[in-house]
Specification:
There is one protein chain. With about 425 residues, the chain is an alpha/beta fold. It folds into two domains: about 180 residues, MOFRL domain (glycerate kinase, domain 1); about 230 residues, Rossmann fold, CATH 3.40.50.10180. It is about 40% helix and about 20% strand. The chain has 16 helices and twelve strands. Strands 3-2-1-4-5-6 form a six-stranded parallel β-sheet, with helices on both faces. The protein has a six-stranded mixed β-sheet with strand order 7-8-12-9-10-11, sandwiched between helices. α2 runs parallel beside α3. Bound molecules: adenosine-5'-triphosphate, (2R)-2,3-dihydroxypropanoic acid (DGY) and magnesium ion. The site of magnesium ion has 3 residues, from loops.
């Protein structure tokens, strides 16, 4: 063990590195025998990096492929693969033209071929070919409406799947009789495989009646021809697909736990689906930390209590910040004068809200130091200005873009300092 802060930063660095797409793809491919006629399709924000790693591992066994990622996310040519960039979060013409290439490739496969399908978050916007009677313009309009209405990703994607010829398991059907191996980097809490990138190669668990409920719940005003497309049911089973999750918030949490144990902490994972309001989560974490110091539970100290998830912020102020920064700033109020406690929270993609920080870190001195500097934490939270407050107390964590995206890692570290200081 070093200082709580140093250990916290080490836990963050090592656990994020365990879910970098390159490493995760390589580790999984080493375990699989995909034959020597492999065709690759990669979609999502991590598509280029996943495809590069796969090509480096499988070399000339890869006979061709298509990579579709967000503008600015590809890093040059990969031999033998076609690389495309397209619109995100709203699809555009390039989404359609590059998806057509992937569809042509899939339809041309025979039973001796294998498709390696690499999936990451953002895939819903980047991989799209509308069903007959639905235009790109329709897809753009409905996507915009869905992103604004407050529906969650499972609900949004239940609708997108039905307007699409490739989502909701339909892409895997096109590749039949070839086998499809799908490696997935999850950005959906609970790792619902049919929701991640709208599950192009996974049986859909949502039904048309769910879609009707979602339309009513958010009072969506959709044109008749769109409603018509939403009546078509999606595949409920696929017999040519195998799927592995190679990165997720659960994996980051497991890895954080292992690093904490190796540094000498007793460690546990409390949840991997934290999804409440960020400032409430901060207060809750602070109360757990106090329980540790005062009552030595749930773990014996020194200890690490680890959570994964994605909290939400209803932005009302005009300040600068992100959900992770807001969570720890809120927590600082509850661990005031507890010297043996640190609470940290980071987005694994290295970006927390519209800021250059990945998240934040606070300890028992943070609240006091802010007061000395004339900053009121409640005022800062009300103005959603966590960035500037944390900046004053060396509380920002900056990693730069990490190249992965598997939600957020949040944890408490407690050492054996017995008492609360006054
Ligand atoms: N001043 C602020 N304080 C706190 N949170 C904010 C502030 N401004 C924006 N946000 C939050 O930041 C969120 C966007 O953050 P971020 O870019 O990390 O998104 P994301 O959900 O991680 O998306 P992606 O999947 O593209 O990584 C918004 O949903 C909003 O709630
Ligand atoms: O692309 C999507 O649908 C989201 O990123 C969830 O995977
Ligand atoms: Mg993010």
């Amino acid at each position: 063990m070093k200082s709580l802060r140093e250990d916290a930063l080490r836990i963050i660095e090592d656990s994020i590195s365990s879910v970098l797409p390159e490493k995760a793809v390589e580790q999984e491919l080493k375990k699989l025998d995909l034959g020597d006629k492999i065709y690759l399709v990669a979609i999502g924000k991590a598509a280029w990096r996943m495809a590069k790693s796969a090509k480096d591992c499988l070399k000339e066994k890869v006979k061709g492929g298509v990579v579709i990622t967000k503008y600015g996310h590809s890093q040059g040519p990969i031999e033998g693969l076609k690389i495309y960039e397209a619109g995100h979060p709203i699809p555009d013409e390039n989404t359609i033209s590059s998806t057509k290439e992937a569809v042509e490739l899939a339809k041309g496969l025979s039973k001796d071929d294998t498709m390696l399908f690499l999936v990451s978050g953002g895939g819903s916007a980047l991989f799209e070919l509308p069903v007959d009677g639905v235009s790109l313009e329709d897809i753009k309009n409905v996507t915009d409406m869905l992103l604004r209405c407050g529906a969650n990703i499972v609900e949004i994607n239940a609708i997108r799947k039905r307007m699409s010829r490739v989502k909701g398991g339909k892409f895997a059907l096109m590749a039949s009789p070839a086998r499809v191996y799908s490696l997935v980097l999850s950005d959906v809490l609970g790792d619902r495989l049919d929701s991640i990138a709208s599950g192009p190669a996974y049986p859909d668990s949502t039904r048309c009646e769910d879609v009707r409920k979602i339309i009513r719940k958010y009072d969506l005003k959709l044109p008749k021809h769109i409603l018509q497309s939403l009546r078509e049911e999606t595949p409920k089973s696929l017999d040519n697909v195998e799927t592995r999750i190679i990165g997720s918030v659960s994996k980051v949490c497991e890895s954080a736990k292992n690093v904490a144990v190796s540094l000498g902490y007793n460690a546990m994972i409390l949840t991997t689906t934290l999804d409440c309001e960020a400032s409430e989560a901060g207060l809750f974490l602070a109360s757990i930390a106090r329980e540790e110091v005062e009552k030595e539970r749930p773990l014996e100290r020194p200890c690490a209590i680890i959570l994964g998830g994605e909290t939400v912020v209803h932005v009302k102020g005009t300040g600068k910040g992100g959900r992770n920064q807001e969570l720890v700033l809120s927590a600082a109020r509850g661990i005031r004068n507890y010297p043996g406690v640190v609470i940290a929270s980071v987005g694994t993609d290295g970006t927390d809200g519209p800021t250059d920080a990945a998240g934040g870190i606070v300890d028992g001195k943070t609240a006091y130091t802010l007061e000395e500097a004339g900053i009121d934490i409640d005022d800062a939270l009300n103005d959603n200005d966590s960035y500037h407050a944390l900046q004053k107390v060396n509380g920002l964590i900056k990693t730069g873009p990490t190249g992965t995206n598997v939600n957020d890692l949040i944890f408490i570290l407690c050492d054996e300092t017995k008492v609360r200081e006054n």
